Give the backbone structure.
Amino acid sequence: MNKKYIIAAAILFFGAINQGCSDDFIDVSPSENIPESNLEIYNNNDGANQFVTAIYAKFLDWNMSTFAWIGVTSIVSDDADKGSSPGDAGSDKDILDALNFTPSTPSFKELFASNYQGINRANQALKYIPQLNKADENLRKRLLGEAKFLRAFMYFTLVKSFGGVPLVDHVPVSGVEEDKKMTLTRKSKEEIYAFIEQDLKDAIQSLPDKSTYTGNNVGRASVGAAHALLAKVYLYQKKWQLALEQANLVTGYSLTPDFIDIYKVSGENNAESIFEIQGTGGTAGRAIQQYSQVQGARGTTGWGWGFATPTQGLYDAYSATDTRRDATIIHRDMTLYDGYHVGPNVENKFYNYKAYSSNYRDQASTDTNIRYLRYAEILLIKAEAMNELGQTSSAIPFLNQVRSRAHVANTTATSQADVRTAIWKERRLELAFEHDRWFDLVRTGQAQAAMAADGGKIFQVGKHEVFPLPQEFISESGGLSAQNPGY
């Protein structure tokens, strides 16, 4: 190459596009490619910050956090139906809902490419920030920790979704054959998990407590978020003792007394919040692109497209006294917390309340955040890990803390098997529409039975535990990567 560029598209997958950033945490806009010879213009605190701001900005994009992501985490599961109108397939949301997806299903291309675009931004930050010697040393250390946390977060999404994937651990250089092979060659899921673990261990050494962030920095990754994500990563691998140890290191958080308050603007980044993607509303806002609109009530008195509608099975899974039901599911003829009345003639019976924006209800850019890690989940991780370690009697109080907040009586389960089932159900009720359900079903072995109960859908054991890799990637790899079994 005659020129090397920063803030540039280096990932080969599908011609991943480039976007840069401004110096505000949320206020992100595209910038031009910057020649590496001009790196000096970034050699200050603001410049260093821009590299990491660009990673967060990726989570606002349509292909990262909206239609495809809603499809492959909610609609595919027993928590949501396609919704919308019968004639509106939503590109492939009907296919996802029926578990009839293939390597050519568009949502998997979006899921795959968007996360590698974000990983590329993280790799840029990790390459260039150490060279910015005029930026504050402590700031650079923190920013590198954030970049590693976010890279781990994206690889966790990929390994849960596809199993083994390419391990792109640095900015690839166009024309370098080894770098091309790196981007096109799958590593095992065990290698990906080991990489994630190391990134999070490194991040823990660099990140501050959540309380140190103020102003535009509120919502950035903290040491608590790194411990929490690492606990979850260990949970998925059934490394129970390590999961428990990391969960015990998540301190300084508490449950929000009223469940519904978590999902209001006033509840963003509150004492229960460990990590969430930040969205600001209005025409000048930097929202998670159309996240609320896609899932909003459709038709008369509605404001959105009506996709990812809660299933009757999810609604019925809540007890009548469980305050989470009417804080998770909007139903016809319901008055919302802000006084807005959803009339009896909206097109679908149920809608996702957690995606609701009161201030910008009918706009594409809303102030809704995606809550990804909450203290309630840490309590449930503790309960699950302890129960699997044979500490069932000690696990039950953590389960009951979550139930008590929901105004549900303590569990009657006492045996390890019954407590296991109770914890799994509690995760469903507590974390509905927070993009965990499908992956929980797969990791716990419940998927086949759950899909059968959800309208007789067929989960094929040995196939559906992972999604198909996009056909474009398999074709581009030229034999360096093989498709997942059954596809």
